[in-house]
Design goal:
The chain has 13 helices and 23 strands. By secondary structure, it is an alpha+beta fold. A 5-stranded parallel β-sheet has the order 3-2-1-4-5, with helices on both faces. Strands 10, 11, 12, 17 and 18 form a 5-stranded antiparallel β-sheet that branches. The protein binds adenosine monophosphate and glycine (GLY).
Length: 421
């Protein structure tokens, strides 16, 4: 089968790397891809906003399955467009992806179906929002309704900060139309972790847990990023809490889909807060996480194509994927200045020196005159598995030491929380 992957980051490299191992996969294409992906797939320079060209390409190359990486492509209805053209594509439709691209919709869904989440209110009128926020205990959390590149969540320590956040999101439209509504919610304390589950409408097939590190600097300091590193499993998600995820999040999610008439097929990746009162859902993502996918697929022993196809065929209940025991760790090497302004075009050295126990997933890279150069904020994801977390962590960091580019920065404490718990 020929496969097309949409996207060009570390998540898509991990998807391509894993699908390359499937004996049933013939050619892999990736739009737009990156330098690392071009080692396992043919990269095609088609923008994800050009849906007509993507459909034409998929027909021309007899693509048997397309896999969508990023959220904005789902929100733009890429799945609906491919299906209308009779093409097989992995991911939820625009109507179902609304669970990610509208936080108001997600909160209403959770409230209707008893899925545990932070107490909240939501508003399309900024005066009403200000009134509600002024009565909230501190800290309070202000969230833009729509997609805002991971920047639309503000934790306000004072009511003044809360007022300012609502003003910027709603009145100034700092994140554009994503700010036409806001969710204002209570602050939850606890450890954060995420789960992934394939959902075919009837069954939710749970993957191992993972934990991301969102802040740019060690000890969770600095600005929020797309994610500076992950490890799996996250020991904070104890078997008791995992059971709660199954019964109170996934089972209720499936029942909720049926009750609301939402047809959902694809990955569900909820962000969770493990609070003193149990698991609470922070948000739903309707796609694979980045860089969660890097550690999850590094641990997956089974054929990913089988799982993706079972999801589309509604036969997930028959799948029993196997996972490498032990742990996986992914450390992101980022451009100097990320997540604020950074330069690109820096030559990356040492990629060949990374030992065979680690995998280098490329995120923001491209080829220039035969050399691999930086092309984004997050550049590489150095990923290693091991029989236990300390070994996987040491192997990933040994790989980080091998690579270099001007301005490279990375966190030195990825997986440290997993070792403490
Ligand atoms: P979200 O996009 O909703 O996952 O929010 C982004 C980040 O903001 C999360 O990963 C959390 O670190 C933080 N966050 C979101 N909602 C809350 C909340 N209610 N309490 C505490 N932290 C939160
Ligand atoms: N790592 C967070 C995300 O993919 O949304």
């Amino acid at each position: 089968m020929n496969v097309l992957i949409l996207g060009g980051g570390g998540r898509e490299h991990a998807l391509a790397w894993k699908l390359r191992q499937s004996p049933r996969v013939k050619s892999i294409f990736c739009a737009p891809g990156n330098a690392g992906i071009s080692e396992v797939a043919t990269c095609v320079p088609i923008s994800l906003t050009n849906q007509a060209q993507l459909v034409a390409f998929a027909k021309e190359q007899e693509i048997g399955l397309t896999v969508v990486g990023p959220d904005d492509a789902l929100a733009a209805g890429i799945v609906d467009r491919f299906r209308a053209a009779g093409l097989r594509i992995f991911g939820p439709t625009r109507a179902a992806a609304r669970l990610e691209f509208s936080k108001v919709f997600a909160k209403e869904f959770m409230a209707r179906h008893g899925i545990p989440t932070a107490k909240s209110g939501h508003f399309t009128d900024s005066i009403q929002a200000q009134l509600f926020a002024s009565k909230m205990p501190l800290p309070l959390v202000v969230k833009a309704d729509g997609l805002a590149l991971g920047k639309g969540v503000i934790i306000a320590l004072t009511h003044e900060e809360g007022r300012e956040a609502i003003r910027q999101i709603m009145d100034e439209r700092k994140f554009g139309e994503a700010g036409s509504a806001v969710v204002i919610e209570e602050f939850l304390e606890g450890a954060e972790c995420s789960i992934h589950a394939l959902v075919d409408g009837e069954t939710a097939l749970l993957f191992p847990s993972a934990q991301d590190h969102k802040r740019a600097l060690d000890n969770d300091l600095g600005l929020n990023t797309g994610g500076m590193g992950t490890y799996s499993p996250a020991p904070q998600l104890t078997p008791e809490l995992e059971e709660q995820v199954r019964t109170e999040v996934l089972e209720r999610f499936l029942l909720g889909l049926k009750a609301d008439g939402i047809s959902y097929s694809g990955m569900l990746f909820p962000g969770l807060m493990l609070t003193r009162d149990g698991v609470k859902v922070l948000e739903f993502n309707c796609r694979f996480g980045d860089p969660e996918t890097q550690v999850l697929l590094a641990r997956l022993d089974s054929d990913l194509l089988d799982l993706l196809e079972a999801c589309l065929d509604g036969t997930l209940a028959q799948q029993q994927p196997t996972w490498k025991p032990g742990s996986a760790v992914c450390v992101i090497a980022a451009s100097g200045g990320y997540p604020e302004v950074y330069e690109t075009g820096k030559v990356i050295s040492g990629l060949d020196a990374v030992n065979q126990h680690a995998v280098v997933f490329h995120a923001g890279t491209r080829l220039e005159n035969g050399k691999v150069v930086t092309a984004g904020g997050r550049v590489l994801g150095l990923t290693a598995t091991g029989p236990d977390l300390p070994t996987a962590q040491a192997t990933a960091y040994a790989a980080v030491e091998q690579v270099h580019f001007e301005g490279m920065h990375f966190r030195r404490d990825i997986a440290a929380k997993g070792l403490q718990s």
